[in-house]
Amino acid sequence: MVYDLIIVGGGPAGVAAGIYAARKAIKTLLLTKDFGGQSVNSASIENFIGFKSISGVDFAKTLEEHLRAQEDIEIKDGVLVSKVEKVGGGFEISTAGGDKFQSKTVLITLGSGYKKLNVPGEKEFEGKGVFYCSICDAPLMKGKKAAVIGGGNSGLEAAFDLLPYAEKISILEFTDSLRGDPIYQEKLKKDPKVEIITKAKTVEIFGEAFVKGLKYVDLNTNQEKMLDVSGVFVAIGYKPNTDLVKDLVKLDEFGRIVVDHKTYQTSCPGLWAAGDITDGLYNQINPAMGDAIKAVLNVYDYLNKLITADDS
């Protein structure tokens, strides 16, 4: 069987694309490891239109339920895609389980993964005091001191996740000020449990069986300082998951897929991308879903042109 479209990814962008593809009666297969993408890690999503507040876990369930309510789409979850290849005029998608699927077009919505600090001790203590998912692991910090590395929205959200549990939270930011939303900054600055350290470069995480602290360089004085903490939550942004298609499409200097921002086509004919994996300006849920919808509508036009060409 040759599909008209295979969507790779089950985050907000992938689900939005799947719903629109189903409604356009495009013969579509959606492949995903799980649903929700990075949004699953948010304790509360407050900027998704239609919801005053919804947890990331509930949001992922809502996305999946909406997608499964569509009749004209095939869904395979729990699937890890291992290869995307250009074969003739179409594509072949391979999974880690050994399955292969053929399609005329492909839409990549794999989003991004956590960036690492790449400092001594980070890999050694991963899961033993070094964490990347605050909503998952914040409860482990009950009555303990924790550090959050990163002063953007990811870091500030991690600090909020830790507030009900940690005895003290130190936010370390490399630049001279926090970069997250002002409303988040104001709330955290007023909380006596929160310490904000700017111009701080984390250089090492240390411990024995578990994390006991970290070292950072004070960029104001160039002096190395220590911080006694039981947990280090790394929240310095995300790395686009482009490994599957890096040899097929053009990437920008940050490793993101370059797309036409009207159509969301990549440099590879027949392959589209949407969401955080692209060189778009705004890595947020609403824009990602909108971009994916535009991509599917363009896929629909593309497929119709193929039919017209075949008939002529």
From TrEMBL:
Gene3D superfamilies assigned to the protein according to its UniProt record, in alphabetical order: FAD/NAD(P)-binding domain (3.50.50.60)
Residues in FAD/NAD(P)-binding domain copies: 3-291
Record's keyword annotation contains Flavoprotein: yes
UniProt GO MF annotations: oxidoreductase activity
Keywords assigned by UniProt, alphabetized: Flavoprotein, Oxidoreductase
Pfam families in alphabetical order: Pyr_redox_2
Annotated protein name in UniProt: FAD/NAD(P)-binding domain-containing protein
Organism for this UniProt entry: Candidatus Wolfebacteria bacterium GWA1_42_9
